[in-house]
């Protein structure tokens, strides 16, 4: 019995896959705006390479594999020296004064409140670094449960794990995060 050939239907991608791809991306990058951009980039890349689709997987699987590469590229960029230098920080959020600076050119001190904000940002960055250094599955489960507040059942279904396995992963992730933060934040 010959296998039915799978063909692409780009006109249906947004209706059929946008929500799934967005949820997939937001769990991995922890930023909804970045996730939206990555999904758009994935759709665009898929359109450009549609002629290379061989029908060996489902449309969704193929799109997810493209999105995975976009997520990897995103992390490579922000972790490269050039990518870090290009991180922009907002300094005004209101009307005509709206703007941003390259992170490396932000003024060092304006007032005590600014110093607290910067310290909080540094703390957040260190925590993000510690989470990124967790084993991939630990980081994924930790973000989904603790940061994005997914229900236990949703995570278990999405990752095909048991509830007890989820809690073991959460415990191990927290233990490793505590050690990382003690070594890199509190003891500095």
UniProtKB/TrEMBL annotation:
Entry superkingdom: Bacteria
Record keywords, A-Z: DNA-binding, Sigma factor, Transcription, Transcription regulation
Organism in which the protein naturally occurs: Polaribacter vadi
Entry keyword annotation includes DNA-binding: yes
Name recorded for this polypeptide: RNA polymerase subunit sigma-70
Coiled-coil zones: none
One function term, GO molecular function aspect: DNA binding
Cross-referenced SUPFAM superfamilies: Sigma2 domain of RNA polymerase sigma factors, Sigma3 and sigma4 domains of RNA polymerase sigma factors
Family listed: Belongs to the sigma-70 factor family. ECF subfamily.
GO biological process, one term: DNA-templated transcription initiation
Matches recorded under InterPro entries: RNA_pol_sigma-70-like, RNA_pol_sigma-70_dom, RNA_pol_sigma70_r2, RNA_pol_sigma70_r4_t2, RNA_pol_sigma_r2, RNA_pol_sigma_r3/r4-like, WH-like_DNA-bd_sf
Domain RNA polymerase sigma-70 region span(s) in chain numbering: 14-77
Residue ranges of domain RNA polymerase sigma factor 70 region 4 type in the record: 125-177
């Amino acid at each position: 019995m010959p296998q039915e050939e799978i063909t692409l239907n780009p006109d249906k991608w947004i209706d059929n896959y946008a929500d799934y791809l967005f949820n997939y991306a937001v769990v991995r990058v922890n930023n909804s705006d970045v996730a939206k951009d990555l999904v758009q980039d994935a759709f665009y890349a898929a359109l450009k390479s549609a002629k290379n689709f061989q029908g060996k997987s489902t449309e969704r699987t193929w799109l997810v594999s493209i999105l995975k590469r976009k997520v990897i590229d995103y992390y490579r960029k922000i972790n490269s020296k050039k990518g870090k230098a290009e991180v922009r920080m907002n300094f005004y959020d209101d009307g005509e004064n709206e703007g941003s600076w390259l992170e490396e050119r932000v003024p060092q001190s304006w007032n005590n409140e600014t110093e607290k904000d910067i310290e909080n940002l540094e703390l957040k960055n260190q925590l993000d670094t510690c989470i990124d250094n967790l084993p991939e599955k630990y980081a994924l489960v930790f973000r989904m449960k603790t940061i994005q507040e997914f229900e236990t059942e949703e995570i278990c279904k999405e990752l095909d794990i048991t509830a007890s396995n989820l809690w073991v992963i959460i415990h191990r992730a927290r233990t490793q995060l505590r050690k990382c933060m003690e070594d890199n934040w509190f003891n500095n």
